[in-house]
Design a protein that fits this description.
The chain has 13 helices and two strands. The protein is globular. α2 packs antiparallel against α13, α5 crosses α7 and α7 packs antiparallel against α8. The protein is mainly α. Strands 1-2 form a two-stranded antiparallel sheet. The chain has one domain (about 1-270). The relative contact order is 0.14. It has helices at about 10-20, 25-40, 45-50, 55-75, 80-110, 125, 130-155, 160-190, 190-195, 195-220, 220-245, 260-265, 265-295, and strands spanning about 245-250, 260. About 75% of the residues lie in helices and about 0% in strands.
Length: about 300
């Protein structure tokens, strides 16, 4: 998103793309893995969620596709106009997924029309409402803040300074959004009636981690900022699934809500998946840590040849 907010020319926009060049495709793989893991471990949830929110998830996929191909097409475009078109595609493809995914999650936790078989029939205003829209905007702002903090870690020169300056503007807006988000969650979900203590603690943690990120911005400490924004994002997801538990889909008729125990696959399948996860996840985590530590040198768009 920052390519259209802090970059002033093609070199700077390509430098921003280069900063995540070694990582973006691996990061998006986690989303595909999540879908596959849902299908294998909680097939009823997968079927209900993906059919009920088919169009939202289709648009998420479109955003991820145009974002993914824009890396290559920007690099190979032969004209300035062509590069500009794909850079705009890169921006749009970076905004759509967090906005739509957060919209979907915030719609899901409010409860949607479902039948006894687990079929979901959300109508337009079940998906698009005040809470889902505020949640979508909050997701975009959290992603933008996290990206700006990453830029401050990976780039040098004017881009790093502009990312720092923009963060000083975005964080106060984010705090206001978090207040509105918390109020809407309190009144439009059952989180605080069913799981008051844990929901309150997690909400406080979201605010504290956001304050940690802002403290890092004010003190110009990139590490604290990046840790704070990453933990804030994580805690939002924890809040949503803590409120859902033990349900995975909430129906407007509580009798039709899908519980983990009814959505789960057989014990044998879950046992095999657990063994595979225990073996593979640490290996993948080691690879990701290695890839991030390998590319620690700061990029200067005016001084280096950028590659992605």
């Amino acid at each position: 998103m920052a390519t259209r907010l802090i970059a002033h020319d093609l070199d700077e926009r390509e430098a921003l793309m280069a900063s995540i060049g070694p990582h973006w495709d691996g990061n998006e793989t986690w989303l595909v893995t999540a879908g596959g893991a849902m299908f294998a471990s909680l097939p009823l949830w997968y079927a209900s969620l993906f059919s009920g929110y088919y169009y939202v998830l289709l648009l998420v996929l479109v955003g991820l596709i145009i974002r993914g191909v824009s890396f290559e097409f920007t690099k190979h475009a032969e004209t300035k106009t062509g590069k500009n078109i794909w850079l705009w595609a890169f921006f749009i493809g970076s905004v759509l997924p967090p906005f739509l995914l957060c919209m979907m999650l915030l719609s899901m936790v409010q409860g949607i029309p479902m039948n006894a078989n687990g079929d979901a029939f959300p109508k337009f205003f079940d998906v698009v409402n005040w809470l889902s829209l505020v949640g979508g905007v909050a997701g975009v702002l959290l992603s933008l803040v996290h990206g700006l903090n990453f830029i401050r870690l990976r780039l040098d020169g004017p881009l790093r300074d502009r990312a720092h300056a923009l963060n000083k503007i975005v964080y106060p807006i984010l705090f206001a959004g978090e207040v509105v988000f918390a109020i809407l969650v309190f009144f439009q979900t059952d989180f605080f009636t069913k799981r008051f203590a844990s929901s309150l603690i997690i909400t406080v943690l979201i605010v504290l981690f956001s304050l940690l990120g802002y403290y890092g911005v004010l003190k110009n400490h990139e590490g604290w900022s990046f840790a704070g924004s990453g933990l804030s994002l994580s805690m939002v997801i924890v809040l949503l699934f803590n409120g859902l538990f033990p349900r995975v889909m909430i129906a407007t008729n509580p009798a039709h809500s899908i519980l983990i125990k009814t959505a789960a696959n057989s014990h044998y399948t879950l046992t095999i998946m657990t063994i595979v996860a225990c073996v593979l996840v640490p290996i993948i985590a080691i690879y990701f840590i290695w890839s991030y530590t390998l590319f620690t040198k700061r990029i200067n768009p005016k001084g280096n040849t950028v590659k992605y």
